[in-house]
Structure formats: C-alpha cells, structure tokens
Amino acid sequence: MTNLLELYVKLVGLVLVGFFLGRKLPATFPPRLGQLLFWVGVPISIVAFLRQADLSAQIWIAPAIAYIAIFLGAFLAWLAIKGQAYLTHTTFQHPTQGSLILSAMVGNTGYIGFPVTLAMVGKDYFAWALFYDLLGTVFGAYGLGVALASRFGGGKANSWQMAKAIFINPALWSFGIGLWFRQVHLHPTVEFYLENLAWVAVALSLVLIGMRLSLLNSWHRLPQAGVSLAIKMVLVPLMVGLTLPFFGITGSPAKVIVLQMAMPPAFATMVLAETFNLDRELAVTSLAVGVMLLLLTLPVWLWLF
User: Fold this and answer.
1) Contact yes or no for 106/32 (Cβ under 8 A)
2) 3-class DSSP state of 265
3) Which of 18, 22, 45, 56 has minimal Cβ neighbours within 10 Å of its Cβ?
4) C-alpha–C-alpha distance, residues 101 and 269, integer Å
C-alpha cells in the first residue's frame, strides 16, 4: 500500500507538473523534450536498469505474451465494431474503426509502463517490462499498427518508413548495448550517476505525459474511447493474465506482464492517426482518458496478481 501511494504521489505529481508547464511553455517545448528523451534519456535508462535486472528467468516469453495481447485487443475491437453494427444497424466510419482498433491493441508500455514497473515491482524484474515493450509493443505499433492504419485510413504504408521507424529506434540499440554493458565493471561513483540519470529520465517522461495531455482538448469521442479502453485496460489484461500460469509465469514476472498489458493506449496511436488520417479525436480522447483510468485500475491488478 505504501508503494502504491508513493507511486500515485509521484505519478500524479509529475504529470500535473507537466500539465502546468505545458500550458505555460511554448508549444515547441514538449516535442523537443520528447526528442531528448527519445534519443538520450530513454536509452540511458535502459542501459542503467539493465545492469541490475535479472535475466536468468524465461524473459524471452514476454514479447510472445505482448503479441498475444496485441492480437487479442485488435480482435475484440473488431468484434465490438461488428456488434455495434449488428445492434444499431449503423457502422463506424473506417477512420474511426482504425483508431478504435489501434487504441485497443497498443499500450504505453514505455513512458508509463517503465515507471510503474520500477515503482511497484522493482529493478530486478525490469527486464520483463523492457522485453515486452521493445520486442513486443514497438514492433506491434510500427508493424501491424502501420498496416492497420493504412487499411482504415487515407494514407499509404511505406515499407521503408516502417522499417526505419523500428530499426533506428535508439531504445532498441541501447537494449543491445545494455546487454553487452552488463559485463563492464564501473566505478561505484559512475554507477551512482548513471542510475540517477536514469531516474531523472523516468521523471521527465512523466512530465512529458502531462505536457502532452495539456495540449489535448478533445472529448467528443468518449463513448467510442470507452469501448477501446475497456478492451485495452480491462478485458485483455484479465483474459491473458489468467492464462500466465500455464506459461509458467507467476509471482513478480506475472505482475509485470499484467501491468504492461493494462497500460493506457500508446502515443504511437496518435502518431499513426495523424499520419494515416484516422479519427484523431478518438485517438486523443483515448489517450487522455486512459491515463486517468490507470489510477483506478492499477490497484485492482496489483491485488489480483
């Protein structure tokens, strides 16, 4: 309970700081902070926390669970769309369908998932969250996500752009460097500053969430967002989480996987909505409401798993 309250203070506090700064600072500041974290902050965090993570368990199963969750979310969203059409004899426009499916399948397992995992489960099991995000969510968003966005939107998928989005991602490169860097002995002082830089990057990522939320002002798609969030943050974590013991995943690793599955929709959904002319209002509303919903669902997952 103490850890959860401490997390809420930090999570809500840092997001509120970002929300306030986002209203005061120039609109160009959040993108610049995002670039700084993307190219420098997140890679440093990955390298630092990987040094202390336990890689002896079957963590390679984490990306497989991520793909199961992604496909299940997309399938349930498709069923919801078909069910709505059958019951009301009306159907969502294709751009709305695309945003609804994307919001139901890809979560913010990096900027929000990492801090939550570190606070609630600890650095020893950080590798589970890392493998889930980098080898699962990233490829799900910029692989399957791009294909779906192209199918439902007005843009066209460019295979080179898809490959570039994945393989120049510095988080993936820092992941490989971090695995090698575990072998390198560092002076305790250097280790201390490296870890503190990593925690600063984690804090700034939460501030960035608040900044981006301060720029979101669309709530017109709340009913549709509710459908995607119910799938992404409730049904999928519950359904897949109950099967984890069959994969031999229990205890803290299971908790990490469930928390990652229960994260709100990723910012990648908004990027894809902008790029492929999907329903931007739905993507924006799902992001904003999802972050707030996390405060309600998080204690439930910690209690269940």
Assistant:
1) no
2) strand
3) 56
4) 10
